[in-house]
Write a structure and sequence with these properties.
Structural class: mainly alpha
Shape: elongated
Oligomer: single chain
Radius of gyration: 39 Å
Distance between the termini: 84 Å
Strand order of the largest sheet: 4-3-5-6-7-8
Number of helices: 57
Low-confidence stretches: 1-96, 961-966
Bound molecules: zinc ion
Number of strands: 8
């Protein structure tokens, strides 16, 4: 600070922030548990004592690292209040000369006993004995008062002193720091220098302990440069205090730099650094450092063990935990209650409750912390045990404290057990703990999670004292219950009550902005964040990026991203995710490359997002490279990554890669199975999807609604109504039928199988319908040739105030086309723009062409296409080509094909097929042969196939290849004879001179073979249902109509363009497809 005075504004903001935040204000990370520890006094806020250990560790580090607490090193356990009483009694006895040493010893004893009352007695005795304390004794008085809880008395002593030395200042500074009054500490630190005193090591250590939040990092850095200038950097205690400060301010990098540059380290410095890593969740680095500590020959102490045990956070770390436990036994520290408590919490986190309990039971003198650790360890999974222990604890004479109640309330919250929570609440009221800010906050969270906003509000309003954590809890509660407005009101009230919002407040509010409609709110919070200078907190900045991402404001997200001073992994992840969310896949991938080039390693979220981007880019090569990086990063066993890989490979068109990833997944969860099912659907391997589903059931995995949606989609594609009905039954049994997504899939399945009555039944039973539900039903009616019903349902949809979308419009336009109402179609097309404010799509225009085509207005249709003259008008020309086929307009058909060949560089087989049919219908067999030859040369003459499901088995018939099923050939012959008998005549158009061509007519139409098989293998009265992969040909269509009448059977044939319901010699398509 030499030479540069900070601006008053800087101080105002630092001061207000310090005041509220440093004073025991939890700065909880989102996950929930956080404690605030301040020089031996631990403030736990809204916490599960699970992570008691590292905090306790940190406390000890500070005790041993700072001088004013040196006396506290004398174990408190050995202290019995007796000697102090003896001491004060002695004071009253005559003949005992109270001298400086005597008072000093008494004061020291008061500090150890943390007894303000006794301390005051000693002070009073001095006054009544008119004993003038010297600087040394005054300093001790300051220290005693501040440590025993009365900073005011300490300040009175300090102010009354005529001569102050650096120790006096230090004692007062550390007192303020201890009481969380950072601003006063800072002010005093500078006042001391103005009064000509040079700060020494202890001054720096004291002032550094006042810097405990990320917000004051800049200030901490200033003190650091101060220290460097004063030449105290090589002091091991000062360096350790610096490490502590940087760790608490969230800058591990700077802490590590100090640590690495230390010439001499003691166990406290090592432990401080290890603890820093543990606090920031970097267990890996903490373990590495602990190994180094051991190799350095330094003996870890109980604090080191308590800290490193905090690095074992999940069941994967159990092995490490067991090793540490063995080491602790060896070091003979097992009975240390601090270590024991840390062991209990460690085992609980690692999921080994039996071990935790064993440690607990073996502890010779468990303290309240031990009980709390064990209760918290039981957690929601063992609620009854936790409550039993709670009763035992009270029987053994341990009074529950705020942590006990907070743990139990958290358990009730997780179990959403409102009754238990209320019982506990009444006990809390009886024991007068309700006014405690931690307990009240836990009550709010409990009520929030148990669904009672009302009760939460009551508790909140009745709190005598609120801190930022309580405000945060209530804000989160409002957001959780969907009252974001109230959350904002509370936020504003918080400000009016002069409570400084912390990063949790902002993150909670940001996370409540989930869609573009919330953008204004999000921007308002951004303003507040800037106002409070909170953007320097990466958690806040990253949440801000994510918020802008969700609200669709990529530019704003990017701006925040580039404003971050020290970007961390979370910042990169947030930005990449935002890009992916909005389809800026290329940018997402580029950013990932940039991140890698800056030496970033990435975690699973990075890879998941990048893989999503690649899937959307359909870049198989890049996908394979990232797969390699995933393996390199050792993440190839992570189920979420594997599932994302399956999705990526499927979208990039490599079903084989997708399956080979899937095959190697060790323990597949339902999400993983769903990904593979979707992959099969994506590549149109419906039958494989159904087989996979069976395998999934055999392996005992329970399908969820997404699974059923997938298999129902497969059934819809395959026209597999028998399978579909079975799934429908299963869904009814599992009571999953009412799921909107599943219902929509059922409607689609039934209607794509031509079974509208069942589709309708599902629709009518739905309790909640969305746009997709209506679309599925409307499209079903339209495709099955009931355009008038489709239009009726559209009216219903509008009356139900469900907004239509582009898919709805396509169905409506097709319905008008089908009904031959080209004028209405045209009006409707106009209304898409005017009423719905949407740009009609290519598909909508193609429907319009079809409407004109149906009405024999071919010229108008052509003009319409020219007028639209869109860049991608292929669909419209294809639509016109169909019209030409129906109306035998060869000339226009050739124009259309020319256009199509222009648009699509590669002539599609479907277009050639259409033209061939048009030539055949016109009797231009030579042209047919030419096209056929060309197609054969180009390898476009793919076999056609048609699939029919009989008795839940699939039978596929290919052109020119009879399947070996018995009776089909006979059936075909019988069919032909029967048709001839009933007077079926081949269309003269289709009477080529070559008689063999005529014979082959049947075998060219796989749908005829499938229908023949169906007639043979299904009982009369059952609809014959098949799905073909190429449009039904003209002669085949005529024959199917004839068969439906001659055999008196309903026939359903679905081709890629149209659904044909044949009945009594008529097709639902009205002979237009
Ligand atoms: Zn038809």
């Amino acid at each position: 600070m030499h030479g540069r005075q900070p601006s008053p504004r800087f101080w105002t903001s630092v001061s207000s922030l310090l005041l509220t935040r440093v004073l025991g204000v939890q700065s909880s990370r989102f996950i929930g548990i956080r404690q605030w520890c301040y020089n031996g006094k631990a403030y736990f806020r809204n916490s599960t004592p699970m992570s008691l250990t590292p905090n306790e560790g940190r406390r000890r580090i500070q005790e041993s690292g700072s001088t004013w607490d040196a006396s506290a090193k004398v174990g408190r356990n050995t202290w019995k209040g007796k000697s102090i009483r003896g001491g004060v009694q002695l004071l009253g006895k005559r003949g005992v000369q109270a001298n400086l040493n005597f008072y000093a010893r008494r004061l020291q004893e008061c500090v150890q006993a943390k007894s303000l009352a006794e301390g005051k007695k000693v002070h009073d005795h001095m006054r009544s004995a008119q004993f003038e304390p010297d600087i040394y004794l005054n300093n001790m008085l300051i220290s005693m008062y501040s440590k025993c809880g009365s900073i005011e008395d300490a300040n009175n002593v300090f102010q009354s002193m005529e001569d102050k030395d650096v120790v006096s200042w230090n004692a007062m500074i550390s007192g303020y720091a201890l009481h969380g009054r950072g601003q006063e500490a800072v002010d005093l630190f500078y006042q001391m220098q103005r009064e000509g005193l040079k700060p020494n090591q202890n001054s720096f250590i004291s002032i550094l302990s006042a810097c405990q939040t990320p917000i004051v990092l800049e200030f901490g850095e200033q003190i650091h440069s101060h220290i460097t200038k004063a030449g105290y950097e090589s002091d091991v205690n000062v360096s350790t205090a610096l490490i502590n400060m940087y760790c608490k301010c969230g800058s591990l990098e700077l802490a590590r730099k100090v640590f690495n540059e230390m010439r001499e380290r003691n166990v406290v410095s090592w432990t401080a650094m290890i603890s820093g890593y543990v606090q920031h969740g970097d267990s890996k680095e903490a373990f590495v450092l602990f190994q180094k500590l051991i190799r350095s020959g330094t003996q870890p102490n109980k604090v080191s063990f308590a800290s490193i045990l905090g690095a074992c956070t999940n069941p994967n770390d159990l092995e490490q935990g067991l090793k540490l436990h063995a080491y602790i036994k060896q070091a003979g520290l097992e009975q240390e209650v601090l270590v024991g408590n840390a062991l209990i919490s460690m085992y609980a986190r690692c999921g080994s409750l039996a071990n935790a309990r064993q440690v607990f039971d073996n502890l010779r003198s468990p303290n309240r912390v031990s009980w709390n650790a064990m209760i918290a360890g039981y957690g929601e999974g063992f609620m009854e045990e936790a409550f039993r222990l709670f009763r035992d604890m009270q029987q053994k004479g341990f009074q529950p404290d705020r942590f006990t109640y907070a743990s139990l309330l958290a358990i009730c919250a997780d179990r959403a057990d409102l009754n238990r929570g209320k019982e506990l609440h009444s006990q809390i009221v009886r024991t007068a703990w309700e006014a405690d800010v931690t307990v009240a906050t836990a009550l709010i969270s409990m009520y929030a999670k148990c669904g009672s906003l009302e009760e939460a509000r009551k508790v909140f309003n009745q709190m005598p004292e609120k801190n930022a954590v309580s405000w945060n809890a209530f804000i989160a509660c409002c957001c959780r219950h969907g009252s974001e407005k109230e959350a904002f009101q509370v936020f504003k009230q918080m400000r009016r009550d002069d409570v400084i919002p912390d990063h949790v407040t902002f993150i909670t509010l940001l996370n409540s902005c989930t869609s573009p409609e919330d953008f204004e709110r999000g921007r308002y919070i951004h303003g507040k964040i800037d106002q409070w200078g909170m953007l320097s907190n990466n958690l806040v900045a990253n949440a801000l990026i994510s918020m802008y991402g969700r609200c669709g404001k990529l530019a704003d997200a990017r701006e925040v991203f580039y404003r971050i001073r020290r970007r961390d992994l979370g910042s990169w992840n947030a930005m990449i995710a935002a890009y992916v969310q909005h389809g800026a896949n290329g940018s997402a991938f580029d950013l990932f490359i940039k991140y890698k080039s800056e030496g970033g390693k990435g975690d699973k979220y990075t890879f998941i997002n990048v893989l999503r981007a690649i899937a959307n880019l359909e870049d198989l090569d890049a996908g394979r490279k990232i797969h390699g990086l995933v393996e390199k990063a050792g993440l190839e066993k992570d189920i979420r990554i594997l599932t994302t890989l399956i999705k990526m490979y499927s979208k990039c068109g490599s079903l084989r890669d997708a399956y080979s990833v899937f095959k190697n997944v060790q323990e597949k969860d339902v999400v993983c199975w769903n990904a593979m099912l979707a992959a099969y659907n994506h590549s149109d391997h419906g039958q494989d999807a159904l087989k996979l589903f069976q395998q999934m059931r055999l392996e005992g995995v329970n399908p969820d609604s997404a699974t059923y949606t997938s298999v129902l989609n497969a059934c819809a594609r395959l026209g597999a109504i028998e399978h579909g009905k079975k799934f429908h039954t299963q869904l009814k049994e599992a009571a999953m039928e009412t799921d909107t997504r599943v219902s929509n899939a059922l409607i689609e399945m039934y209607s794509r199988c031509g079974c509208l009555s069942s589709a309708n039944e599902v629709f009518e039973k739905m309790s909640r319908r969305n746009t997709n539900s209506w679309n599925a039903l409307i499209a079903g009616y339209c495709q099955n040739g009931q355009g008038n019903v489709a239009l009726e349902y559209y009216e219903h949809m509008l009356r139900a105030r469900i907004s239509p979308n582009k898919a709805t419009f396509t169905s409506i336009l097709s319905s008008y086309a089908q009904l031959g109402e080209e004028e209405q179609a045209f009006d409707f097309l106009e209304s898409i723009k005017e009423e719905w404010n949407m740009e009609p799509s290519e598909q909508h225009y193609a429907c319009m062409v079809a409407a004109l085509g149906r009405a024999s207005l071919l010229k108008e249709a052509e003009e319409f296409i020219e007028e639209i003259s869109s860049e991608s008008d292929a669909l419209m020309w294809e639509s016109l080509l169909v019209a030409c086929r129906i109306h035998h307009n060869v000339g226009l058909a050739e124009t259309a094909v020319e256009h199509l060949l222009d648009v699509k560089a590669q002539s599609s087989p479907a277009v050639c097929e259409q033209l061939m049919n048009i030539y055949a219908a016109a009797g231009r067999w030579e042209d047919v042969s030419v096209i056929k030859a060309t197609m054969r040369e180009a390898g476009l003459l793919a076999p056609k196939s048609c699939t029919i499901e009989v008795n839940s088995e699939f039978h596929t018939f290919m052109t020119n290849h009879f399947s070996p099923q018995i009776g089909v050939e006979d059936k075909i012959e019988e069919l032909v004879w029967k048709m001839m008998d009933k007077g079926f005549l081949l269309d003269p158009h289709y009477a080529p001179n070559d008689s063999r061509e005529k014979e082959r007519l049947f075998s060219h139409c796989p749908e005829l073979l499938a229908v023949a098989y169906g007639l043979e293998h299904t009982p009369p009265g059952v609809l014959v249902r098949c799905v073909t992969d190429s449009p039904v040909t003209d002669p085949s269509h005529r024959m199917l109509k004839f068969i439906s009448k001659a055999y008196n059977r309903g026939i359903f044939v679905r081709d890629p363009n149209c659904f044909h319901n044949f009945k009594d010699g008529i097709c639902s398509c009205g002979d237009y497809w």
